[in-house]
Design the sequence.
């Protein structure tokens, strides 16, 4: 949770590539996730409305650096999911 929570929120994959450190890019729905995931070469399939490789809606990948890019639902939804960990 700390790694995700400390990641810089970005509004595009390009912005994530330009920053130093881990980045977090929010998606609003499955279709939005698929739009973000496809150019990154990530699975776009879903099961029960959740991306296939996600844990609680969170998908992690790495860009051209050693830093993580997290694709996540909005932070408000994540906080509900991780209330015990915060």
Sequence:
């Amino acid at each position: 949770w700390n790694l995700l929570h400390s990641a810089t929120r970005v509004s595009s994959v390009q912005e994530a590539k330009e920053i130093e450190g881990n980045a977090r890019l929010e998606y609003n729905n499955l279709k939005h996730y698929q739009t973000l995931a496809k150019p990154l070469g990530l699975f776009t399939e879903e099961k029960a409305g959740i991306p296939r490789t996600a844990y609680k809606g969170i998908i992690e990948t790495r860009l051209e650096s050693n830093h993580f890019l997290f694709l996540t639902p909005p932070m408000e939804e994540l906080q509900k999911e991780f209330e015990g960990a915060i």
Remarks:
- The chain has four helices and six strands.
